[in-house]
Amino acid sequence: MNHLFIRTAIASALMIGAQGAAADQPAEDYVEGQHYRGGSQVCYGGDLFKAQWWATAEQRPAEALTVQNTWDSPWVLEEMGVCDGSGGDSGDSSNTGDSDDNADNGDSGNNNDSDSSGSDSGNSGSTGGSGSTGSSDVATYQSGQSYRKGSEVCYAGDVFLAQWWANGNDLPSDALIAQNTWDSPWILKEADGCADGGNNDNDDDDDTDDNNDGDSGTTPISLSVSTSQSQLTGGGTVQLSASASGGDNTLSYSWAQLSPSSPVASIDSVTSASTSVTLPATTYDVSYVFSLIVSDGDTTEEAQITVQNFAVDIGDDDDSTDNDNSGGAVNAAISASANSVGCSGSITLDGSESTGGSGMSYIWSQTGGPSIKLSNYVGSSTQAVLPEVYSNVTYTFQLTATDSSAASDVAEVSINQTGCASASGHVMGLSELEGEESARTTDSLLQEVKQTVETRDNTLVEAVQPGRNANPENVQRVESIISEDTWNYLFPLRADEYTYTNFLRAVAKFPAFCGEYTDGRDSDAICRKALAVMFAHFGQETGAHAAAWDEPEWRQGLYWIREIGWTEETSGGYGACESSSSWAADVWPCAINADGGYKSYFGRGAKQLSWNYNYGPFSQAMYGDIYTLLENPELVADTWLNLASAIFFFVYPQPPKPSMLHVVDGTWEPNSVDQANNLTSGFGVTTNIVNGAIECSKGSEDSRSQNRIDYYQSFTEYLGVDIPADEELGCANMGQFETGGAASLNIYWDKDWGWSADNPNNESFACQLVNYQTAYSALNEGDYAKCVEGNFDMTIDYQN
Prior knowledge:
Blueprint: H1 9-13, E1 41-44, E2 47-51, E3 75-79, E4 152-155, E5 158-162, H2 174-177, E6 186-190, E7 221-227, E8 231-233, E9 236-246, E10 252-259, E11 266-267, E12 274-279, E13 286-295, E14 300-310, E15 335-336, E16 340-341, E17 345-350, E18 361-368, E19 381-386, E20 393-402, E21 408-417, E22 426-429, H3 430-439, H4 444-452, H5 458-461, H6 473-481, H7 484-490, H8 500-509, H9 523-542, H10 584-587, H11 612-623, H12 627-631, H13 635-638, H14 641-651, H15 660-664, H16 672-676, H17 683-695, H18 703-719, E23 748-751, E24 767-770, E25 776-777, H19 783-791, E26 794-797
Parallel strand pairs: 8-14, 16-21, 22-26
Antiparallel strand pairs: 1-2, 2-3, 4-5, 5-6, 7-9, 9-12, 10-13, 11-12, 13-14, 15-17, 17-19, 18-20, 20-21, 23-24, 23-25
Helix pairs in contact: 6-8, 8-14, 9-18, 17-18
């Protein structure tokens, strides 16, 4: 079993003390409760530590000794034993019992930073005097006994903690001589933390009054566990068996699944010596760890065993088969009333046969064929009315089924329709239109942008779970930088809907975000900076902005999920819904609310996405269907779309504005037009992209822009991102983006008013790229054909 190092709860409990620095030591003593900037050096426990980036008061140097990766803590151990020992664990040799020495600060002459004897003899005279209240409630270490992860014991007057399973021959004193924290299952938690002096089972003395031995008169429990099958594929049942002896009373048994938290195996009898365990079928590999605790009422013993459940191979030849993030907990299924129709007809799509946990929800979308509108986009079933078509066509529809645990699965169905309608106007083959689209989008910058905004199929996105080995490469990169603990730390006040799983799924949707650069650019460094930039804007857009709260403002982001003052029942807000007032009303039609009014497209999610003409394109990018979110805008708040909307905005350009990703990764290089407006690479220009017309070009920094700067500086320090000395952080002296700048790019299709002698009425039957927004985007494959169809009297032949 691969042992996992403990980082948060354990590290936060490690002993801290603050004393003045000795004149001959290399750095000041660590001060409890103080923040440290990146590069700071401190003495702690006799050792020299360095802050890699911003370290908060809660992040203590001792964390560096217990983390699995160097990026899991802002602190790294620079050199052992070079300080005088007064920093951190209070090496006060006089043990005068000063009244201001707290319970975690009561050493009596031994700081444990270089003692290799394992007996801590310097503490033998300490009985928890006035300088230490001790930890008398911690059990005394028992020689030969095994301890489970998280166990605390008293040994030679000190408190030790098990990082993982500790066998009977693993002595706590090994932690004092181990070169690395992973060389011993034990770590020193609190020196002199045991008021009664603890126990040293290596003592050769004949003390008769040492009643802390803890094992006199007891019979140790001997325990081993086995499994009928250590590996299986596709789920199944295994038998777990225990062999236990010893103890002074009748033995009791308690089985439990230690990991993972999901999917959950079914343990038949948790209180029997042997039990059967049923593992669900999965489409990704899962390692289950089961624990058995045996007790005689006084003494306990634990053993663990691992069973590997390998993925089901369903025979497809690409990674889209890996689509069940819940280990089989949810399986989406679509039953169609018919898989083919004639000239016209209606099809009922039923997802009620999908299986999963409680609280199942359903989202429908159309992913292929001529665009139609379904009867509804949420609910277990929907209906598609298929109008007459000129040529045979195939429609594809997708169902996402999710249960209350966020386990999810995606199913897709194809419906064939026979063409029968007469052609209306000029007939053009789909292949001809696709060829024209390709020929008109060869611009190198446009190709770069198209790669940046590329999205993954939701089959792969919904499969993402924290720690899953088959997660996409960019998701794994983000996981290496932002663990779930880090997510919880950075956004402690976030709305419940902003889950870590939703964050990872949002990342998964966009392969270019924190993706791999193959041209020599540092992918990890770009990812860290992109996260710092995006998180800083989260703070301004969705932060609580409560200066008096305990959490600093830079960690108050994602507090709001819906715009203040709005509810899903409120009608008539943020919608260009009347055709008489806006062409957007026809292109991205507003849905009708329960009260008969138009649904409101107010701010939702981390970007506070607003207006129907933004919900429609976002829905197209996420589902291939504009109606899914126009009909159900609440999904932008309630699902992983709440964070995907922010990444969507991060990677999409708004010509002549570049995308924020292209600013961060250096793709955008300001030209003379940009430079004339003082637009330079750096954080400040991302604020200009987000809200330049309101916050920038004022001569002095707008308070909102200053907030963003402050948050950015905090996030960069925390994430270990260097801010170059010449990086422009503000936008007070920047002008606005103008046509002719480096990011000026025509990304929309509109009617080509040109002339062609070969076509009816000499019309072009073509579209051209323009720099103003239309209903058709060159970033969406297939929009060129829609543009031609929408602007000319013509019919598409889908078979040619």
